[in-house]
Amino acid sequence: MAKKRDSGRKETRLQKEKSFSRRDFFKSGAAAGVSAAVLVGPGKASAQGIAWNYEVDVVVCGAGCTGLHAAIRARDLGASVLVVDSNFDVGGKMIHSGGFVSLGGGDAIQARDRAGADPDGFGLTAPLVPPADLEDDPDLLFKDMTDWSVVDASGVGRYRYNDRQLHRAWADNAPLTRQFQLENHVRFARVDGTHFGGGVSRARMAKAMLKLAAKTDIKAGTLSAEDRGDPEKERHSRFNPMRQTPGIPAASVGAPGWVYGGFCLARCLEFSAREKGVRFMLNRHLDEIIREGQLTGRVLGIKASYTPRFEPGTGAQLLAERQHRRARSHDPYPRTQGGHRRHRRPSEQSLRSHHV
């Protein structure tokens, strides 16, 4: 987790099971695309003479779909991780979405539905698509996204202009990504087809879901009526700010008694990240990337500024769902070692990590 400079706080113990060492993690390039340090404060930043307030191995810029996955993966591999986001809560656009997740390539949910199984006892109905539409592999997924001979009304032609190596990597990792989500408390309804951009020759889309119950418990996969929101009045909750009908009933996608939405994906990933020791610094806008030289050299970190947001009517500062819930003394999120601490106004804060 983020370590306060010269504070004497001990860093969260590394995960007991790691695929490879922290050094191997950075040598292998697994941290590509994330910065190595954070400086929070006013004025110009330079590579020399920075009084870093915090140090971590990996800083992830943005707490949306990509950021949460990256943060958990880095933490699983033994890195201390800090996620910085300009918003007052996590989730990005993902938390406002419908929770449609098209992966495929023979992923675990395709395999589950192809067998007509319900191994976790979710109470799923029979599969919604024929087994033949679920026969898939990474090669077919790659072809769907790159081959101009694949023509379908739901296809997105412009995707075929993308870098083929990136498409290849995405297709090869799609099944692993689905498994990663399953291992981090995400649950899925039946596969019910696909949607634009998700490949067109096989059914690959399943919706992230939670089960309606008396209380919200991410590990149990349950959601309270309060946290769901009120669909009749179209009123959302702090837990579920999705822009569509809050908590769409999942009976139509083979999961009676469950609801789906982007918040089901976002909140489960957030829970897992916090449970594993990922730290979050919200209300911080990325202003500058700090490198060894002005325009060259290794990335050392970022400079960010404080960006609180306020209720238009009352002027009260908007809080993350987790902070609001804690104020009401009901918090389903785990505390990391040392507990949650609200940062003072960060004009005097800076953070640094050890590796890129």
Quick recap of the structure?
With 356 residues, the chain is an alpha/beta fold.
List the keywords.
22% helix; 6-stranded mixed sheet; globular; alpha/beta
Write structural notes for this entry.
The structure is a single chain. With 356 residues, the protein is an alpha/beta fold. Helices cover 22% and strands 17% of the residues. It contains eight helices and 15 strands. It has helices at residues 22-27, 65-76, 108-114, 138-146, 164-182, 225-228, 262-276, 321-327, and strands at residues 3-4, 38-40, 54-56, 58-61, 81-84, 100-102, 187-188, 205-212, 222-223, 248-249, 258-260, 279-281, 284-291, 299-306, 350-353. Helix 2 (65-76) packs parallel to helix 7 (262-276) and helix 4 packs across helix 5 (164-182). The longest helix is centred in the middle third of the chain and has 19 residues, at 164-182. The radius of gyration is 21 Å and the shape is globular.
Unreliable runs: 4-20, 25-37, 39-45, 335-349
CA-atom Rg in angstroms: 21 Å
Strand order of the largest sheet: 1-3-15-2-14-13
The largest sheet, given as strand count, sense and whether it forms a barrel, is: 6 strands, mixed
Tally of separate domains: 2
Measured between the Cα atoms of the first and last residue, the distance is 16 Å
Describe the global form.
globular
Number of strands: 15
Could you tell me the mean pLDDT? 80
| Strand fraction | 15-25%
Helix content: 10-25%
Helices, by number, come to 8
The run of helices and strands is EHEEEHEEHHHEEEHEEHEEEHE
Class of secondary structure makeup = alpha/beta
**Assembly state (oligomeric):** single chain
